[in-house]
Amino acid sequence: MADQGSSITPRAEDYSQWYLDIIAQAELADYTPVKGCMVFRPNGFAIWDLMKCDLDQRFKDTGHVNAYFPLLIPVSFLSKEAQHVEGFAKECAVVTHHRLRAAAGGGVEPDPASKLEEPLVIRPTSETIIWHMYGQWIQSWRDLPILINQWANVVRWEMKTRPFLRTAEFLWQEGHTAHATSQEAVEETLRMLDVYEAFAKDVMAMPVIKGVKSSSERFAGALDTYCIEALMQNGWALQAGTSHFLGQNFAKAFDVTFQAASGEREHVWATSWGVSTRMIGAVIMTHSDDTGLVLPPALAPVQVVITPIWKSDAEREIVLGHAEKVRKALTPAFRVKVDARDTVKPGAKYFEWERKGVPLRLEIGPRDAAGDSVFAAPRIPLLARGGKKFGIPAATVADGVREVLAEIQQALYDAALERRASTMRTPTAYDAFKADIEKGGFVQVSWADDAANEETIKEETKATIRCYPLVGQEAAVGTTCFYSGRPATHIALFARAF
Amino acid sequence: MADQGSSITPRAEDYSQWYLDIIAQAELADYTPVKGCMVFRPNGFAIWDLMKCDLDQRFKDTGHVNAYFPLLIPVSFLSKEAQHVEGFAKECAVVTHHRLRAAAGGGVEPDPASKLEEPLVIRPTSETIIWHMYGQWIQSWRDLPILINQWANVVRWEMKTRPFLRTAEFLWQEGHTAHATSQEAVEETLRMLDVYEAFAKDVMAMPVIKGVKSSSERFAGALDTYCIEALMQNGWALQAGTSHFLGQNFAKAFDVTFQAASGEREHVWATSWGVSTRMIGAVIMTHSDDTGLVLPPALAPVQVVITPIWKSDAEREIVLGHAEKVRKALTPAFRVKVDARDTVKPGAKYFEWERKGVPLRLEIGPRDAAGDSVFAAPRIPLLARGGKKFGIPAATVADGVREVLAEIQQALYDAALERRASTMRTPTAYDAFKADIEKGGFVQVSWADDAANEETIKEETKATIRCYPLVGQEAAVGTTCFYSGRPATHIALFARAF
Q1: Of A214, A234, A276, B455, which is most buried, counting CB atoms within 10 Å of its CB?
Q2: B108 closest CB neighbour out of A79, A91, A157
Q3: How far is B95 from A394, CA to CA, in rounded Å?
Q4: pLDDT attached to residue A87
Q5: Confidence category of residue B106, pLDDT binned at 50, 70, 90
Q6: What distance in Å separates the CA atoms of residue B68 and residue A161, rounded to the nearest whole number?
Q7: With contacts defined as CB-CB under 8 Å, which chain B residues touch A106?
Q8: How far does A300 lie from chain B, in Å, by closest CA?
Q9: What is d(CA A273, CA A244) in angstroms, rounded to the nearest whole number?
Q10: Taking CA atoms, what residue in A is nearest to B73?
């Protein structure tokens, strides 16, 4: 990615290339010699760090604690839960040896003498190893609930990859909770879905639709998979987080029972829920434009860049002094950087920080210094400000910046919401449906649940059921399926998806 | 570990078992079915989270940024640096396949059709993959320095493991920096050693000795390995962190050059530095006692536990109300928990929280509530307080707690320092040396650097050179080696070590 020059392909021309250009130009990620694995460069990783920090607090606020389970899982564990083996025991990185030796032709090779008795897989997800451990820890109802989250790397061997969105190795958090009753587990599943929705909205400035997956899109081993679905600028959907009600499937597979208050032994109820570095892709694709990366202030590693402008040495001293005063006034409330490089022209600095998605630039020239103010240039035009640059008095710069950043955060959310609303279509027949799918955006229909029909539609239109939205299902009652004409069972949201 | 009952083996009886008992009783870790891999249970992982948070800020304060590189490394990379292959290309987890298939006898097995052309190893450390990437990123002196840190899991296949101290998979941070000059790289190496020393002292309450390794203990691929060495309660040393000056070894192996300001192409200079979850083991073994875990307040996930005591329901209401008031006064400045369980007797609560290492217990009975105070019971006796429990007025409880926690933090450090000083010995002959090594503690000697002699001493006494301390080397001048009688080249610190 590092060698693609400094131009960004417009979205209208080639959306996929635009996405890759944004990532390269903002130095968010890079390819590696390991197939399917990427490097999170500092600018990209800092976004994940901010996401992690915010989410971790939300998990703690809802009673969860962090733990860490092994990276490696015995292969036999994957086949213990029947559906799980179907879903996950396939494209995995398999560890078969534990030693290298010098190879005859130079270099090194796996030492045959070090072959493992049982191969290990790098976790594609950790339900199996975690439920094995829960089996050791849970004896009675007093040990429940267990509310554990793990921040970890996982590997799923992917042939077709796209930075952040689909890579062999990715980073994520996986919550794994154990409960005494079905009801408690369902409540937990929905609670965490709400946490994800609030995070997407408040931090990512990304509107999402909460829903439940159809059986064909359900997580391998779950009774119900809930999700949040977002809409990207090219009209494709993106699943941004999932929360699974696992019932007693894993408890039964790993024989995890507890003594209920009644004295009876019962199987434990489970949930799991996760979001991943795919969310970085989601935030890039939700907000960025043809100039470069656009980040919501809450996720911007640098929220404010101060660019001093001077001609003479005398001006330089005054302007840098003023810039430093402003920086101090904004620290530590905001993540601020002063770009005092004298090897780069102001215009080139503007261009660079716009490309890198810094939400707010504060220009400081001799006149601003003299007038004890700064000149504010938001990364996106703010309608309430006439879409123009504007001055902020230096004396109240922290308040001014707080206000502008809040406006930017809100404007990004509003724009994404408006985009989703304006492309939401509700056809009642398959022909209209097909045309609507071509246009992009969510397509909402009355639907009679049927996996075979779902498969046919996917083959013919490349669209899948993103979810049955949690809100508004009552509208299905008394309507007929747009595809089969049978009585509708659900309101379904279709779209092409990443 | 979960099933070893609730008693802790005294240190004097069996130090190794004591360590395992502490871990089990405080629920810090557990064994897993994966050989050499452990679970970090929530109580243990929370210590790591606190360490990480503090260290991460220190890294940022010294100009570093985080990034994330792939878990998997092509085997050929490991053999590019001659010494590195010796040190690391051996006991590694080797990934050879990327798919499982149903096995004839049930279960799953690696699919032979998915065999990788080139095997991958799970990173034992990331110099090779990182220097490959630096080769893509570094063109000119303007690209330098690169100051990157990574928080990651690594795997080194270990046969003999001990929770936290030595496990196949462990968590760590690895800093990898690239510089234009040797001098800058050496300065960075020593700067990070100072960061580790300050962290060990201020946060872990653990005195350490900074030094440089002898050639036989040097990191594979480094020109110099610096370390911090701590002393555990059984008189063994523990290497708690390392900082390596790598010279141009990796830059040469991966052909990473830059155009200097002079116009010439030169190889880049490198450092790497890391601390790991082994530090959790270090902090446990530095401070804990026969009652259970002892944690310095800076690393205690729960710093203050409030234990209300009541007999009647009326008392219960008053006492819990008072406890809640105190909790609020201490939040969020401190990590506080109120133990209001009515199924557990106060004595059992005291015992439990002592075992789990909570630095300060605040007892609140009806008399304390009436007197608007709390009764403070530090986890370790504070000499300045006569080693007894004492009252703190509720009105100033936050100040009172801050003071007590600072006293505990200091007392732990002082005790560890005193222990180290009182066991430090300086023999001048090999017989005395052997006797001193048997006693435990650091043994400081005049030494003529010689790898063969070092090996003999290790075989005969199980002691190794922990380091040549950075401070006090001038004392070697004019003295003779305690072992060979030759003119001393160094002051060396020997000890048996974990």
Answers
A1: A276
A2: A79
A3: 58
A4: 72
A5: confident
A6: 17
A7: 79
A8: 14
A9: 6
A10: A34
Dihedrals phi, psi of B226, to nearest 5 degrees: -100, 155
Task: Kindly list the residues from chain B whose CB atom is less than 8 angstroms away from the CB atom of residue A85.
Answer: 108
A28, A50, A95: best to mutate for the B interface, most B CBs within 10 A: A95
Q: Which residues in chain A are closer than 8 Å to B76, comparing Cβ atoms?
A: 107-108
Contact by Cβ (8 Å): A141, A263: no
Query: Average pLDDT, whole number, for chain B?
Result: 95
ipTM rounded to 2 decimals: 0.96
Which of A32, A91, A148 faces B129 most closely, judged by CB atoms? A32
Instruction: Count how many Cα atoms sit within 13 Å of the Cα of residue B81 in the half-sphere of its side chain.
Output: 27
Does the pLDDT at position B2 exceed 50? no
d(CA A216, CA A452): 9
Q: Which residues pair with A170 in a beta bridge?
A: A154
Element holding B211 (H helix, E strand): strand B209-212
State pLDDT tens for residues A71-123: 999 999 988 877 777 776 678 999 999 999 988 888 889 999 999 999 999 99
Residue A355 has pLDDT above 70, yes or no: yes
- Could you say which DSSP state residue A262 is in? T
Those residues whose C-beta lies under 8 Å from the C-beta of residue B128, and which sit 6 or more positions away, are: B73, B77, B78, B80, B81, B84, B250, B253, B254
Question: What sign does the dihedral B210-B213-B218-B222 (CA atoms) show?
Answer: positive
Residue in B68, B280, B356 to test binding to A, most A beta-carbons within 10 Å: B68
pLDDT (tens digit, 9 = 90+) per residue, A441-459? 999 999 999 999 999 999 9
Task: Give the model confidence (pLDDT) of B375-413 as tens digits.
Answer: 999 999 999 899 999 999 999 999 999 999 999 999 999
The nearest alpha carbon in chain B to A301 belongs to B65
Task: Test A108 with B85 for CB contact under 8 angstroms.
Answer: yes
**Percentage with pLDDT > 70 across chain B:** 98
* CB contacts < 8 A (A, B): 202
Residue of A nearest to B24 (CA): A137
Q: Which domains does chain B have, with CATH numbers?
A: 29-287 (3.30.930.10), 302-415 (3.40.50.800), 424-495 (3.30.110.30)
pLDDT one-digit tens code per residue, B308-323: 999 999 999 999 999 9
Q: What is the pTM of this model?
A: 0.95
Q: Is B128 helix (H, G, I), strand (E, B) or coil?
A: helix
pLDDT at B495 over 80: yes
Strands A65-66 and A146-155: parallel
